[in-house]
Amino acid sequence: MPRFLLTRVASGLGVLLLVCLFTYLVFFALSPDPAVQICGKNCTPELIDQIRGNLGLDQPFWTQFFHFVVGIFAGRTYGEGVGAVDCAMPCLGYSFQSSQAVWDMIVQRLPVSATVAVGAAVLWLLAGLAGGLLSAVKEGTFFDRFVTGLTLTSMSIPNYVLALVLQYVLVVKLQWLPFPQAVPFADDPVQWFLNFVMPWMVLAIGYAAAYTRLTRANVLDVLRENYVRTAFAKGLHKRRVIFVHALRNSLIPIATGLGHVFSLILAGSFLIERVFNIDGMGYLGYNAILQRDYPVALGILVISSLLMLIGNILSDVIYAVVDPRIRF
Questions:
Q1: Does residue 327 fall inside a structural domain?
Q2: Is the domain of 59 the same as that of 193?
Q3: Domain coverage including residue 70
Q4: 128: helix, strand or coil
Q5: Where would you tag: which of 81, 137, 139, 278 has the fewest CB atoms within 10 A of its CB?
Q6: Number of other residues whose CB lies within 10 A of the CB of residue 239
Q7: What residues in the chain have per-residue pLDDT under 70?
Q8: 44 in any annotated domain
Q9: Is there a single domain that holds both residue 169 and residue 249?
Q10: Using an 8 Å Cβ cutoff, are 146 and 131 in contact?
């Protein structure tokens, strides 16, 4: 296992380096001159040259990219002499609009995005496993047909449409829930839950439907295996056979996609934050793109890629835990 983890981490860092290279190329090499954007409308050529020198934009592309990568792990210094500005690790640069450190801006909003993504992941996992298991056990019944139809409908509705519909029904008409806001858990746990439950539902419904169908199919396949029939023939309780034998072996294909689905939920939370105006990483990234605040957008992409790589590594570890036959 340690060797496997080291290999996956090393390969993940290589992928992350390629992501940094691609995004840095798009945002800085193929975009308008950042120095002109920072300087504003009433600017002189001398001031633009000074800004380019302070940011290192007058250097070759590979030198700029090298300093960017080194800054993430060791920090860097912008400019020289009295006007030099130190950027501590992990340095992702400074915002063109507010001059704040990008890392500080992301850290302030990361808990909100993590709350949305993790809450949705827990909800879709519980709903998907429970719905798929019950549907498989009650195969052919009205409940099974109802769940099948419900999952097909849920998978067909886009997230942003579902968000607008739930917001209109639950907030405007029925007034069961408040309009979502980033309420800290420590301030009011009840309001924290009520404010985040609708974003969780919007993100989780589609993935829960997909995992319900996947779990149902896997459980039905396992229930038809000879060793399960033997367990029933030996007189083992139905509940023990389903949970100990059928469900555990059904989780093996599901475990391989956990990290990937969590990555999709994290990416989807950016859209949901924009729809509900929740001030998280997604909302920050959306505004950064509109305002052409490239350091902020680049920093969010780097952090998002890192979180997705961590999710994929965790998926491989869960796969090994669920299936004891796997040896690294």
A1: no
A2: no
A3: 2-87
A4: helix
A5: 81
A6: 9
A7: 1, 30-31, 40, 253-268, 320, 322-328
A8: yes
A9: yes
A10: no
Q: How far apart are CA 198 and CA 179, in angstroms?
A: 9
Q: What is the pLDDT of residue 268?
A: 66
What are the phi and psi torsion angles at 24 (to 5°)?
-65, -40
Provide the sign of the torsion angle of the four alpha carbons 185, 188, 190, 193, taken in this order: negative
Residue 117 near residue 262, CB atoms below 8 Å: yes
In a domain, 51, yes or no: yes
Q: H or E element: which one contains 21? A: helix 2-24
Amino acid at 319: Y
Can you list the pairs that 321-325 forms with residues at least 24 positions away whose Cβ atoms lie under 8 Å? 321/255, 322/248, 322/251, 322/252, 322/255, 323/252, 323/255
Question: Measured between alpha carbons, how far is 197 from 323 in angstroms, rounded to an integer?
Answer: 33
Cα distances (Å, whole numbers) of residue 216 to 25, 261, 270: 45, 18, 30
Phi and psi, residue 78, nearest 5°: -95, 130
pLDDT tens, residue by residue, 112-156: 888 888 888 888 888 988 898 899 888 889 999 999 999 989 888
Among candidates 301, 268, 286, which has minimal Cα distance to 18?
301
Does pTM surpass 0.90? no
Could you give phi then psi for residue 101, rounded to 5 degrees? -65, 130
Is residue 75 within 8 Å of residue 91, measured between CB atoms? yes
